[in-house]
Automatic annotation (TrEMBL):
It comes from the Bacteria. It comes from Billgrantia campisalis. It holds the Pfam family Porin_2. Keywords: Ion transport, Membrane, Porin, Signal, Transmembrane, Transport. InterPro entries: Porin_alphabac. Residues 1-24 form the signal peptide. This is Porin. Belongs to the alphaproteobacteria porin family.
Length: 403
């Protein structure tokens, strides 16, 4: 069967280890006070960094990051330095067995916290070395009194329903992205409400759109509600258009989407997580690739046979289980699927993506709060518009040193 390899690896997990009430790493909510010489206490404990004060100022500074070594063995398709299930769309990636080593996911970050009479001003800058071994920007933003300005995670995405995985970016079909934006967040107890205006862009399919230039006249509008680390729901609306001034083509359409995530404890050591995303024009939220790449795989929009600009409908879901065998060892197993509705009456789309399913199972050892290692089996399965399909397996082993 197609998933025999998944079941085989699952059977290898250390089910004999004694489960404990302690979590491998409890997640600490952001927003804790920063005290000189103490951890910055933003995010999960393995992201905690001791801060130091700039003499004569109210500013605390923290440096951090990690070094990550990834070893991959691809059985069928080379899926790149960061597992990309959509690599199966390109026959040039086929292989009869390939080993690759990489450290490109390694990252560096720098943050400041400045205390003022009216609250704390925070800045954060981070980069990593994907995809080209050069230092590339991930985040660059500032925060003050609930306002955020700069490049950071899209307000459309969630984290609490995303499983822990060795694969960068999590499962397929989980909304992601780091646009430039203006955001405001209001917190009231466990409730958090946020709205944002985000940098607009969209991925246009190259099929039937030669010479057409895209543009966005309005920013993307998003809204999100989150209850603690249990449930969250978000929505967005975007405007897509073409540039009549340069190409003579004057078309526009609307993209929209809804996303929700859930994390439900099942006893002291196990958590059920789920994700759902539905909408139109969401293809570019699927992975971290430039719009011209996404346009050939998961386009937000296309030009139909009548020359009209149409957004692409899509939906995705994912479920996973996380289990802490004890305070040091944990596992996750899950599956997710993304489907899009490309026009089957246009010949150029016949080899395009109809749906992709991604499944994984892992075992992770948190040696201490600065070192973790693990192994993960990953299985990808795609189906094209013309009905043809491919599947591929990958084993990933990782060692991560935090500093």
């Amino acid at each position: 069967m197609k998933y025999n390899k998944v079941m085989a690896l699952a059977a290898m997990l250390p089910v004999g280890l004694t489960a404990a009430t302690s979590q491998a790493f409890d997640v600490v909510p952001a927003g804790e006070p920063v005290v000189t010489g103490e951890p910055s206490r933003v995010g999960a404990p393995w992201n905690h960094r001791s801060t130091f004060n700039i003499p004569g100022t109210n500013t605390d500074v923290a440096f951090g990051g990690y070094v990550k070594f990834d070893a991959h063995y691809d059985f069928d398709f080379d899926q790149g330095d960061a597992t990309d299930p959509l690599a199966l769309l390109n026959p040039a990636n086929e292989t009869d067995g390939r080993t690759t080593f990489t450290g490109k996911e390694s990252r560096l970050n720098f943050r400041t916290h400045t205390r003022t009479d009216r609250g704390t001003v925070t800045t954060f800058v981070e980069g990593h070395f994907l995809p080209d071994a050069k230092f590339n920007l991930r985040h660059a933003y500032g925060e003050y009194l609930g306002f955020l300005a700069g490049q950071s995670w899209t307000n459309f995405m969630h984290f609490h329903g995303t499983p822990r995985s060795l694969k960068l970016g999590g499962p397929i079909g989980y909304a992601t992205g780091r646009p430039n934006q203006l955001r405001y967040t209001h917190r009231a107890g466990p409730n958090a409400f946020s709205v944002s205006l985000e940098e607009p862009s969209f991925a246009l399919s190259p099929i039937g759109s030669a010479g057409v230039e895209t543009e966005n006249r309005l920013p993307t509008l998003t809204a999100r509600y989150q209850f603690g680390r249990t449930f969250g729901i978000s929505a967005l609306v975007s405007e897509f258009s073409t540039n009549e001034a340069t190409t003579g083509v004057d078309e526009s359409t609307t993209g929209y989407g809804f996303a929700a995530q859930l994390a439900v404890p099942m006893g002291d050591a196990t958590t059920f997580k789920a994700n759902a995303t539905v909408g139109s024009g969401l293809g570019s939220y699927l992975s971290f690739v430039p719009d011209f790449v996404a346009g050939g795989r998961t386009p937000d929009a296309y030009i139909d046979a009548n020359g009209a600009l149409k957004s692409v409908d899509s939906h995705a879901f994912g479920v996973s289980l996380e289990h802490n065998w004890n305070s040091d060892w944990s596992s996750a197993v899950g599956t997710s699927r993304f489907s899009q509705d490309l026009p089957d009456d246009i010949a150029g789309f016949q080899s395009g993506l109809d749906r992709v399913q991604y499944s994984f199972v892992n075992l992770i050892w948190d040696v201490n709060q600065r070192l973790s290692t693990g192994i993960e089996y990953q299985h990808s399965d795609i189906k094209r518009v013309n009905g043809e399909s491919d599947d591929a397996s990958r084993i990933q082993a990782s060692v991560q040193f935090h500093f």
